[in-house]
Amino acid sequence: MKRRIDDMNALQAGASHDEALEKEHEESTKVKNIQTVEIGRFEVDTWYFSPFPDEYAQQRKLYICEFTLKYMKRRSTYLAHCEREQSRQPPGQLIYRCDAPPLRRECLAAGMEQPKQLSVFEINGSDSKVYCQCLCLLAKLFLDHKTLYYDVDPFLFYVLCEVGADGGHRIAGYFSKEKTSSEHNNIACILVLPQHQRKGYSKLLIDCAYQISIREAKVGSPEKPLSDLGLLSFRSYWTQILLQTLSDHRGNLSVKEISMMTSITTDDIISTLQSLNLIKYWKGQHVISVSPKIVDEHLKLHPPGTSLRCDPSKLTWQPPAEDALDK
């Protein structure tokens, strides 16, 4: 039995683009033809235009394989594809696996199946072009301001999957990042698919991006501008991380020291602490002004234990050789 997901909440961190792509984007988003997509057991209403090839863009409904992300016009073609398709997971390298937390009561009430595990795959846009292009086209259905569709070579994609009892890895969300970013961005675009909202996956993806930055010994930040929802999500994550870090060190840290420990940029640290009134500008520099008691009071309002996090001990990702990034 199909379940229609009407309440969608897509998270966007933006994407780099030039004027030509921006103009194309503005023109193409005027009309939304594809109304729904069927992906696995879910039928999901779309939000925005996505530049699928013409013969597919004219369809009101598309069928999408939850493993390969290939899109089809007819249900019969889709069912035949599912019968013969052997792949049960994304391409690329498995970099993270953990036990799946219990689903919330409302998710179970909606008929969601409890996954056994969660996994994250790193996929090189140069190595798996078709999969990554299909991923971008799917994501555009739920992201308003996204212009990366086909030129996937400069990007890495990190796909979060739910692992079912049958061993299949079904996509729940993803984030992308440029292989080389002059702006030190560690996230270009991020999305949790509508049917997997309210499971804590956005925080898991954000934390995964920062854990990778920590292993790279680099600071990182999502591409700007952030959507309103994106800013709320990242600000919530930064708040929890910064408060926990200050609590662990009794508040005796500088902005630069926190940045080195967390890989959060100094700008993001300052703006977050300013929103909490925990930082002052004194004699030409920002100084953290906080007592352990005040930190503890804030932690009660933003308890870190309530969010799903990336366990560093389960993250197998290691920095690649420099020449590998050029591929």
TrEMBL record:
Residues 29-319 form the MYST-type HAT domain. It is found in: Nucleus. The active site is at 223 (proton donor/acceptor). One of its GO terms (cellular component) is nucleus. Its EC number is 2.3.1.48. It comes from the Eukaryota. Its main location: nucleus. GO terms for biological process: regulation of DNA-templated transcription. Belongs to the MYST (SAS/MOZ) family. This is histone acetyltransferase. It comes from Emiliania huxleyi (strain CCMP1516). The lineage of its organism: Eukaryota, Haptista, Haptophyta, Prymnesiophyceae, Isochrysidales.
